[in-house]
Write a structure and sequence with these properties.
The chain is built from 28 helices and 22 strands. By secondary structure, the protein is of the alpha+beta class. It has 5 domains: 231 residues, Hypothetical protein af1432, CATH 1.10.3210.10; 131 residues, Beta Polymerase, domain 2, CATH 3.30.460.10; 96 residues, Roll (Ubiquitin-like (UB roll)), CATH 3.10.20; 76 residues, no CATH class; 75 residues, Alpha-Beta Plaits (2-Layer Sandwich). It starts with a helix and ends in a 10-residue tail after the last strand.
């Protein structure tokens, strides 16, 4: 590679010059556009002649006339409009369409690409597009059309992306057009002010590049990465560019390795194409950071790519490589047997030559290579008649819609505002790996890497996950905060009363363990709907009326002001029990939240000027009947103490002593000394306690615990 070619490789994403529309090409398209669509209705206009040639090379039977008609409409509607670079505006849709044509997009996508800015920037309407080119083209054009800033204000950009993602859920070709549109805009970003360049580059980094990765369009992703890298990290970019130029001036050792690999495969009788694949700028930078430097003239500036005909040939090539060279086993990955979530398939390995140089090798079929470069674009039209399966209600099934997109479409509906959607979208896309978790009931769920049991609960059960009280991972009790790994089996333990109950609801602590937007939005919405429970009391714990009969509990907190009969709740933050000194605060709905006097939350509320309500423990009159000490083993969860004491009180039993041991691996032990009216009440009490969600055993203490009367 010459020094000049090395510079081109940096600017075009690792040598992918076929996707780079050079200045000469833009000038040619500009001249052709200014000359008009050309004479004759059937003649292919000069401006789209190259697009038509590229398209027919991959789709020999394509109808080029529809592209001609789309160009004529686009050119006439954009006529007189100029880009900030000074070129006719029509050069932009032409460039976007050429990018998609080179990726192998089918005719409908290219037609919509030529028209993608007409509705947004000209007098052409969606109805006109639909009447002339059909419903699918209309849908694609609508999907990439921006929302008006006049109507949406500062939320226009995020709401446009929301609209685009919803449209992508029905047709992934929408996002293909948007990615190509952003790539051409990034190529020509130099005419804008530096601050605007940086803003657009950051959105590209945070949203568009991850979307390109998830849709498998690596050819667009890598060039976008390099363009963003040059804008946001110019010093690192310049150092990387200098390394590439220095490397290009030296013999490339990968060429020697490629010759050796060709000879090995030829002797083995395996038909294969062996290429040297240069790394793009960001990839070179990552290698430098990972390895503490990169030496020009080494094998680290590229990889060997081996293309074969069949899947079985990939493994045959792997066998020869590992037999005839020294393999670096730690570098082996099989993405054919276990494809990535973005459709990517390849075998990855690394081999050492006789001089100790390590060369990375990718092995894939030609079809895998096409998909690796173009992702969903390479799949053609999944909506053609006979190509896509149909559900019983006649709806098309999109075989290209991956699990991450389904999850995104689910939670975006619940995002209450643009800011929440925008931040949640970036968080979702920041995850670069997907895992599969097996549900104990036989189902599976796809989650982002780093997801916890809380995330899995909401992915599997939606808002019913509010009633989750515990979990088992691979058969063992585990905290809801447990980070799941690929292949884990998960059993969720649900409260018997289900969603919508006044007994169960998520704790604010769950937000600390939720990694996915779906879980965070659902938890936040529940907490917002139950502010008193979330902020100050055991969420959704049953209220105890001060006017209740004394036998309802051995010790109830009773409000003493002008609030007779007020509902009373024990605060979750400090879980007061007799004989703790307590104080109360009136919260929403007139309920009195009871805190221990030394509770920090109580101190903060008092300091903030909240009025305190005098409260005292009401001592029960159960008498001195049969006394027993019970131990309850349970999964730790919010409100467990309140639920157990409520059940005990409901049996007409008084509590004279209660203690909770520190949790061990999410398991807790409660000790209760109770006074029963008679010995026959004990079995019924133990059955009632075992029925409390999360409690898995209740038994008598082997020896009496010293009872402390409340």
């Amino acid at each position: 590679m010459s020094a000049d070619n090395a510079v081109d490789a940096v600017s075009s994403g690792g040598g992918r010059g076929r996707l780079m529309l050079r200045g000469a090409d833009l000038r040619r398209l500009g001249r052709a556009a200014l000359l008009g669509p050309g004479s004759g209705r059937s003649r292919v206009p000069d401006a789209i002649e190259h697009i038509a040639k590229v398209h027919r090379a991959q789709h020999p039977g394509a109808d080029i006339d529809i592209l001609r008609r789309a160009y004529v409409l686009a050119e006439s509607s954009h006529r007189g409009q100029m880009r900030k670079s000074g070129e006719p505006y029509i050069t932009h849709p032409l460039a976007v369409t050429l990018i998609l044509a080179e990726l192998g997009a089918e005719t409908t996508t290219l037609t919509a690409s030529l028209l993608h800015d007409t509705v947004e920037d000209t007098e052409v309407t969606l109805d006109q597009v639909g009447e002339e080119f059909g419903g699918e083209v209309r849908y694609l054009v609508d999907g990439v059309t921006k929302l008006e800033k006049v109507e949406y204000g500062a939320a226009a950009e995020s709401e446009t992306f929301r609209k685009m993602l919803v449209a992508t859920g029905n047709d992934v070709r929408v996002m293909s057009i948007k990615l190509a549109d952003r790539l051409h805009n990034m190529r020509t970003l130099g005419v804008m002010r530096p601050e605007k360049q940086a803003r657009i580059a950051k959105v590209t980094r945070d949203v568009l590049i991850p979307l390109a990765e998830r849709l498998g369009v690596q050819a667009l992703k890598t060039e976008l990465e390099d363009l963003v890298f040059a804008i946001l990290h110019p010093e690192d970019y310049d150092r990387t560019r200098e390394s590439l130029i220095a490397h290009a001036a030296l013999p490339d050792p990968l060429e020697t390795v490629a010759v050796d690999v060709r000879g090995v495969l030829r002797e083995a009788g395996i038909p294969a194409e062996v290429l040297v694949r240069p790394r793009h700028a960001v990839s070179v930078h990552r290698v430098r950071v990972k390895r503490g430097g990169i030496r020009p003239g080494s094998c680290q500036f590229g990889r060997i790519l081996v293309l074969v005909g069949e899947d079985a040939d990939c493994y045959a090539v792997l066998g020869e490589l590992h037999t005839c060279f020294t393999p670096v086993i730690a570098e082996f990955k099989d993405f054919i047997a276990a494809p990535k979530f973005n459709l990517y398939q390849s075998l990855h390995t690394a081999i050492a030559d006789g001089k100790g140089e390590i060369a990375e090798v990718l092995v894939r079929t030609r079809q895998m290579h096409k998909v690796a470069e173009a992702g969903v674009v390479a799949l053609g039209n999944p909506y053609a008649v006979g190509e896509a399966p149909v559900t019983t209600d006649g709806e098309r099934v999109d075989p290209t819609q991956p699990g991450w997109l389904s999850r995104l479409l689910d939670w975006q509906r619940d995002a209450p505002d643009s800011d929440t959607f925008w931040s949640a979208l970036r968080d979702e896309l920041a995850q670069d790996r997907e895992i599969t978790v097996f549900s104990a009931d036989g189902g599976t769920v796809g989650l982002t890497d780093g997801a916890t049991c809380v995330d899995a609960a909401y992915a599997l059960h939606g808002e019913a996950a509010h009633a989750c009280v515990g979990s088992r991972v691979n058969g063992r009790l585990a905290p809801l905060s447990t980070v799941l790994r690929d292949g884990d089996t998960l059993q969720l333990l649900m409260g018997a009363e289900g969603p919508g109950s006044d007994v169960y609801g998520p704790s604010p602590d769950w937000l600390e363990h939720a990694r996915t937007p779906a879980a965070r939005i659902a938890i936040t919405r529940w907490l917002d709907a139950h502010p008193a429970s979330a902020a100050e009391a055991a969420p959704a714990a049953p209220a105890v009326r001060a006017a209740a009969a004394v036998t309802s509990r051995a010790a109830d907190p009773v409000a003493e002001t002008d609030l007779p009969g007020a509902a009373v709740r024990l605060a979750r933050c400090c879980t007061p029990v007799p004989p703790d000194a307590v104080t109360g605060f009136v919260i929403r709905g007139g309920t009195v939240a009871v805190h221990r006097s030394e509770c920090p939350t109580a101190d903060r509320m008092a300091s903030a000027g909240r009025d305190q309500v005098p409260v005292r423990w009401r001592i029960g009159t159960a008498g001195s009947g049969y006394r027993a000490t019970l131990l309850a083993e349970a999964l730790g969860r919010p409100r467990l103490l309140a639920d157990l004491t409520e059940v005990i009180a409901g049996q007409g039993v008084g509590i004279v002593f209660a203690a909770v041991e520190p949790p061990q691996e999410h398991r807790v032990r409660h000790t209760y000394t109770v006074e029963l009216p008679d010995a026959e009440a004990l079995p019924a009490l133990m059955r009632a306690m075992r029925a409390v969600p999360g409690v898995y055993d209740v038994y008598r203490a082997q020896r009496q615990v010293a009872a402390v009367r409340a």
